[in-house]
Amino acid sequence: MKLKGENFTPEYKYPIKIYRIGSIEFANGLEVRKMIFSFVLAILLVIGFVMIGVQGDHNLLGFVAKNWLILITVIPGIITFVVFNLQYDNKKFIPFLKGRVRFYRTKETSYEHFIEVASEQMGKEMVFEPHMKAGEDE
Q1: What is the pLDDT of residues 78-115, one digit of tens each?
Q2: Is the pTM of this model over 0.90?
Q3: Is the distance from CB of 28 to CB of 20 less than 8 angstroms?
Q4: 10: which strand partners?
Q5: How far apart are alpha carbons 32 and 24 in whole angstroms?
Q6: Is the alpha carbon torsion for 22, 27, 28, 34 positive or negative?
Q7: CA quadruple 31, 36, 41, 46: dihedral positive or negative?
Q8: Dihedrals φ, ψ of 40, to 5°?
Q9: Helix/strand/coil for 133
Q10: d(CA 15, CA 35)
């Protein structure tokens, strides 16, 4: 799909949400992508701490054992908040990243009304032909 000036796709405008888990209801709903992101991040953090604790100093493993709940809830929550709720250039995080990637891919390309301008025309001096009316001779 080629974008012609749209700022977002319907998937990001209307994300998939869960409004009830068992008897617990959420008025605004929980976005599934945020839940998946937080869950994957928490698993990676736990695996990382366990790997570091097994290979490294035993004091680190004791720290993880004492503060495991904080490590798997607060840190992913803060990272999820930063990624999905803050605005960068007045855009959400994912559209901001898409825009950055698109910019760096097409950095040397110029566009006018979403149409690519030939690079050999850039920086050339403009030359005008004299205006001739129909039936006139030089």
Answers
A1: 887 777 776 667 777 778 788 888 888 887 787 778 78
A2: no
A3: no
A4: none
A5: 16
A6: negative
A7: positive
A8: -65, -40
A9: coil
A10: 12
